[in-house]
Amino acid sequence: MWLAVVSQPFDVGATVPELREADKDNGEFWVGNPFQFAYTKENLSAFEHNGVFFNTGNRDFLDMSFISGGDNRGDSRTVIGTDINQDGMPDLLIRQVGGGALVVYQNNFPKTNWLVISLRGEQSNSAGIGAKIAVTRGDLTVRRELLPIVNFLSQTPSRVHIGMADSDVAKEITIQWPAGGTTILKDVQANQHIRVYEKDDHIEKLY
């Protein structure tokens, strides 16, 4: 099934003509105005199942779609990973057109140590968007950028989640702020959500 639509944000009444004749025998159709799509009685879902893949850490992935229960076919449009119940384990929110508008998958993997970092900018923007964060745990340094992922009609929270594995302390946290400054923190306890202030490197525990 093929569909082509062209958004007309400045004229909701505009209509775009077909680029070619739609092949209705093969399920093709044309909607010249996306604002009128709800009235066409067409469905974008081809009942494809969602896929869930587990990173084994060896440059390989394990297909766990069925055993996780995540292989629903509800015409999903977006997925967001965030810690909903504040247990340090990122959960998944799926936004769908059918099969339930919002589906939440709780993370039931064995718990490990974790650290969540939010920022409060002063010279930089208030949420620290664009900051580069490096967290050293044991012999491994984990690097993240605070760039909230934006999906279709959704966005992740403005914070960074760091998996700490069996390390209960971050030996060093380096934050490179968008405005150019650098904050270095030493020996930060795991299993907490902290907010770091650009102005004076102050740390506030949120939970």
Main attributes?
mainly beta; single chain; Immunoglobulin-like; globular; 4-stranded mixed sheet
Written overview of the protein:
The strands form 6 sheets. The protein has a 4-stranded mixed sheet, with no helix packed on it. Strand 11 and strand 12 form a beta hairpin. It has 3 domains: 3-39, no CATH class; 53-105, no CATH class; 113-205, Sandwich (Immunoglobulin-like). The protein has one helix at residues 65-68, and strands at residues 3-4, 29-30, 53-55, 61-63, 76-82, 91-96, 102-105, 113-120, 132-137, 140-145, 150-151, 154-155, 160-165, 169-176, 182-189, 192-197, 203-205. The chain is globular. With 207 residues, the protein is mostly beta strands. The N and C termini lie far apart (48 Å). It is 2% helix and 40% strand.
